[in-house]
Design goal:
The protein is of the alpha+beta class and 445 residues long. It folds into 2 domains: 199 residues, Creatinase/prolidase N-terminal domain (Creatine Amidinohydrolase, Chain A, domain 1, 3-Layer(aba) Sandwich); 237 residues, Alpha-Beta Complex (Creatine Amidinohydrolase), CATH 3.90.230.10. It is built from 12 helices and 17 strands. A 6-stranded mixed sheet has the order 4-3-2-1-5-6, with helices on both faces. It has a 3-stranded antiparallel sheet with strand order 7-10-11. The chain starts with a helix and ends with a helix. The structure holds manganese (II) ion (MN). Manganese (II) ion binds next to loops. The site of manganese (II) ion has 4 residues, from loops.
Length: 445
């Protein structure tokens, strides 16, 4: 399929019709979506509706930005269990392809050609269905009316016609070069990635729906893990309860490897070995989230494995919580992540007292990472330097890590930026020491 795409790129790049020449008449392109979504549960991803209005609007916005030219976007490819060390799932759609189609099919290519604001041709190319292969893979989406109905794209064609159609494309040709290597012809290809990245920063209603759902599932997992935790458990046993909570609530997969770090491991930011046996008195830092519908949450809770914070643990926890709240209260359109980081550090600085000894707790030795980042299809999503706008979704995750005391605390919540401030999305997971102790006191002993 890579070969098919490469040939198509060459076909556009060397087509007789270049940007400087007059365009051939565009084939009629009925862009109107075809009716309502019909569930085809036998097909991969098809139990899940595509928001065909949202994807059409994203495609229109992209082509308006481009003005004139051809866009080629390749779908993801199934990984090979013999070669790629597949651990979880052998297929996840390419983010760029998903953004413009919400179709979870493999080896497809989306081709869009803009000859002007009112002349945009969109074609979805799909591999043929192969009944003998479908005995192995299950039913696949093919170049037929089912694909048209699901995608809302009126023109669906077999992948082997890509090259011929690409000859009618226009220069410049845009591809997401960050994800696909096109070899010697890359000089002739413009990079689509920066344009798509800028579009992905502010989430539309469909994306916010997906993020809310990923967050809700993640919250359910965190609650399940806190309920299950007992001193003497291995970290992986807490992880099992956590991920049971994700999967049994419909998670597609993990957003990233689950971090369940107890005692000394609570101070290692990206600890995910999860093999230590917990002891009473440990804090557990649990940084884990689910992906749903291609979007992932990012949530961290810190709790005492025995269900009761010590006075010292509570004091550090409350300082982190206060810093997070101060940052949340400062969220509004126009502010930057860097400025919010400053707000959180200033709060910690002003309220540290002697909690962190000679230094204040905001010192880089103790709070040794940034305050947060956008989330979306990537857990560290695009747009971290952009001033906040309504519709951006970010994390706020201050932490204090005292290695000498084997005491780490991080609290991470997902926050939607609104016109006037912000909305907590992950507040369903107990966030204060009182709420955590209350939840854990209800456990069966
Ligand atoms: Mn994070």
């Amino acid at each position: 399929m890579r070969t098919a795409l490469l040939t198509a790129v060459i076909a556009v790049a060397f087509s007789a019709e270049s940007a400087s020449q007059s365009a051939a008449p565009a084939p009629a392109s009925p862009a109107a979506p075809i009716g309502a979504y019909t569930v085809v549960p036998q097909l991969p991803g098809m139990g899940r509706p595509v928001d065909i209005a949202a994807t059409a609007s994203r495609r229109r916005a992209l082509m308006r930005r481009i003005g004139r030219g051809t866009v080629l976007i390749q779908a993801g490819h199934e990984r090979d269990i013999e070669q790629d060390y597949v651990q979880d799932n052998d297929f996840r759609q390419d983010n760029t392809f998903y953004y413009f189609t919400e179709i979870e099919t493999q080896d497809a290519v989306l081709m869009m050609t803009a000859r002007g604001p009112d002349s945009i041709e969109t074609i979805l190319f799909l591999p043929p269905r192969t009944p003998s292969q479908e005995r192995w893979t299950g039913l696949r989406l093919g170049p037929d009316s089912v694909a048209m109905r699901l995608s809302g794209i009126a023109k669906v064609m077999p992948i082997d016609s890509l090259e011929a159609r690409a000859r009618g494309g226009l220069q410049p040709v845009y591809m997401p070069l960050g994800h696909t290597r096109v070899g010697a012809d890359s000089a002739r290809v413009s990079n689509l990635t920066p344009i798509v990245d800028s579009m992905r920063v502010v989430k539309d209603a469909d994306e916010i729906m997906r993020l809310r759902r990923a967050v809700d599932i993640s919250v359910a997992g965190h609650i399940a893990a806190m309920r299950a935790a007992r001193p003497g458990m291995y970290e992986y046993q807490i992880e099992a309860a956590l991920e049971d909570g994700f999967r049994s609530n419909g998670a597609d997969r993990l957003g990233y490897p689950s971090i369940v770090g107890s005692g000394p491991n609570s101070t290692t930011l990206h600890y995910d070995v999860n093999r230590r046996k917990t002891e009473t008195g440990d804090l557990v830092v649990m940084d884990a989230a689910a992906e749903w519908g291609q979007y992932t949450a990012d949530v961290t809770r810190t709790f005492p494995v025995n269900g009761k914070f010590t006075a010292r643990q509570k004091a550090i926890y409350d300082l982190v919580l206060g810093a997070q709240q101060a940052a949340f209260d400062a969220v509004r359109p126009g502010i930057t992540m860097r400025e919010l980081d400053g707000v959180a550090r200033r709060y910690m600085h002003d309220h540290s007292g002697t909690l962190c000894g000679e230094k204040t707790c905001d010192d880089r030795e103790y709070f040794n990472h940034g305050l947060g980042h956008p989330i979306g299809m990537d857990v560290h999503d695009v747009g971290i330097s952009r001033p906040l706008e309504p519709g951006m979704v970010i994390t706020l995750e201050p932490g204090i890590y005292l290695e000498a005391e084997k005491l780490g605390v991080r609290i991470e919540d997902d926050v939607l930026v609104t016109a006037t401030g912000a909305e907590w999305l992950s507040a369903g997971a107990p966030r204060t020491t009182d709420a955590i102790e209350r939840l854990m006191s209800g456990r069966d002993r």
